[in-house]
Design brief:
Blueprint lengths: L7 H8 L6 H14 L2 H8 L16 H7 L3 H9 L14 H8 L2 H9 L13 H7 L3 H9 L14 H8 L2 H9 L6 H9 L11 H4 L9 H8 L2 H8 L16 H4 L2 H11 E9 L19 E6 L4 H20 L9 E4 L8 H4 L3 E4 L2 E3 L9 H8 L4 E4 L3 E4 L1
Parallel strand pairs: 1-6
Antiparallel strand pairs: 1-2, 3-7, 4-5, 4-6
Helix pairs in contact: 2-3, 2-4, 3-5, 4-5, 4-6, 5-7, 6-7, 6-8, 8-9, 8-10, 9-11, 10-11, 10-14, 11-15, 14-15, 15-17
GO molecular function, one term: aspartic-type endopeptidase activity
Pfam families: Ank, Ank_2
Keywords: ANK repeat, Repeat
């Protein structure tokens, strides 16, 4: 933020109507703009021969200084006096860049009203990028409403999405991913306060998965910084590629903090237990506790898991459970039979005789629902897979 000190002798000369050297008036102009002295600035702007676009010794214009410090009245005066709205300063930025970086929404709004270049980007750092970097929610919203480009990349490959993820500001990130300017007020409130699962993203998978010079996506950044809220928002986009590798062949999971690793595992897979349930009419030669367990194992279901994959995994899990029991110093696997209408050795044929329940829904091996296993388990809120033994079980 640019500040300037006062020059009392010059102020006295100006306010008394005495002659003031042009160079000194230029200094006063920057001081008045930087500190928000509207009266003095107005008097200076009425002076003839003053270059209102001149850079001060620190390399700033009066407009830049006023915008950076949030002096909207001074910004308005300068704009009305014909100052160059997109004049750049020594750091390569414009007044709109300064307003965006400092969170000066009212100043930014005035600059945009005078057709400031919303996508001007020195080194790729646009006003939107700068607002996201510093977590200025209202500025991000204003710029998006005004048509800011979300995909402009800085020299290192970072987009505003990368910048928002790095800042850890989940509200700004959600705006970038889901906000469209046609939303009404109620939808804007929902966007800031509610989950993003019911919102439709407005950015492409290409932008979401774009990489910087090191091969990092925004998800790599959020995960490595431990920003769980940001990572969850990124993962809510169906186009996210969490397995995308950086230049060191590291995925998002590889660089994630422990908390974010757990989040990734929970977001990208479902873990449900398989339980064996025995009816009263089931007869065992060994204790029922040998066969019945709270959790014989867990299945991990991914978004791409098919019903064929699911059936195969369930079958293998049940077979492994009984094989373990039978190999623990007891009879061979073949001694275990599932007696219903006929006997069958332990194997896939026996598995098909079992009955299963996914939560409250009956299911059998090989059965296919309209939804994928992931969708069905999520929508039905299935918390376990129960296996029911038919007829009687004997170990002879």
């Amino acid at each position: 933020m640019q500040r300037a000190s006062w020059s009392p002798s010059l102020t006295s000369l100006l306010t008394s109507g005495g002659p003031v050297p042009l160079g000194d008036r230029s200094t006063l102009l920057h001081q008045a703009a930087a500190q928000g002295n509207v009266t003095l600035l107005s008097m200076l702007l009425n002076e003839e021969g003053l270059d209102i676009n001149n850079l001060c010794k620190d390399g700033y214009t009066a407009l830049y200084s006023a915008a950076a410090n949030g002096h909207s009245d001074c910004v308005k005066l300068l704009l009305m006096s014909g100052v160059h709205v997109d004049a750049t300063v020594s750091n390569g930025f414009t007044a709109l860049c300064a307003a965006a970086a400092q969170g000066r929404a009212k100043c930014a709004e005035m600059l945009l009203a005078y057709n400031a270049d919303i996508n001007y980007a020195d080194g790729g750092k646009s006003p939107l990028y700068l607002a996201c970097t510093n977590g200025h929610f209202e500025l991000v919203k204003l710029l998006l409403d005004s048509g800011a480009d979300r995909s402009t990349a800085a020299n290192n490959g970072w987009t505003p999405v990368h910048a928002a993820a790095d800042s850890g500001n989940s509200d700004c990130l959600k705006l970038l991913m889901y906000y469209a300017s046609h939303f009404d007020t109620s939808e804007e409130i929902d966007l800031k306060n509610n989950d993003s699962c019911n919102l439709r993203p407005v950015i492409s998978a290409t932008l979401l998965n774009s990489t910087d010079s090191e091969g990092w996506t925004a998800a790599h950044i959020a995960a490595s910084r431990g920003f769980k809220d940001c990572l969850e928002i990124l993962c809510s986009h169906s186009g996210l590629e969490p397995e995308k590798q950086d230049k060191c062949n590291r995925t998002v999971h590889d660089v994630a903090t422990d908390d974010c690793k757990q989040l990734l595992e929970n977001l990208n897979s479902l873990r449900i237990p398989i339980r064996i349930s025995l009816d009263d009419n089931v007869r065992l030669c060994h204790s029922a506790s040998d066969f019945e367990s709270e959790d014989i194992c867990y299945l991990r279901i991914h978004k791409h898991t098919t019903w064929d994959d699911f059936s195969a995994a369930v079958s293998q899990a049940v077979l492994n459970h009984f094989s373990t029991i039978m190999s623990d110093g007891w009879e061979s696997q073949e001694d275990l039979t599932f007696n219903n209408t006929s006997e069958s050795n332990l194997g896939l044929g026996a598995i098909t005789d079992l009955s299963f329940r996914l939560g409250n829904t009956s299911w059998s091996v090989g059965q296919i629902f309209l939804q994928t296993p992931w969708e069905f388990l999520k929508m039905s809120k299935v918390d376990q897979l129960s296996v029911f033994m038919p007829g009687r079980i004997e170990i002879l």
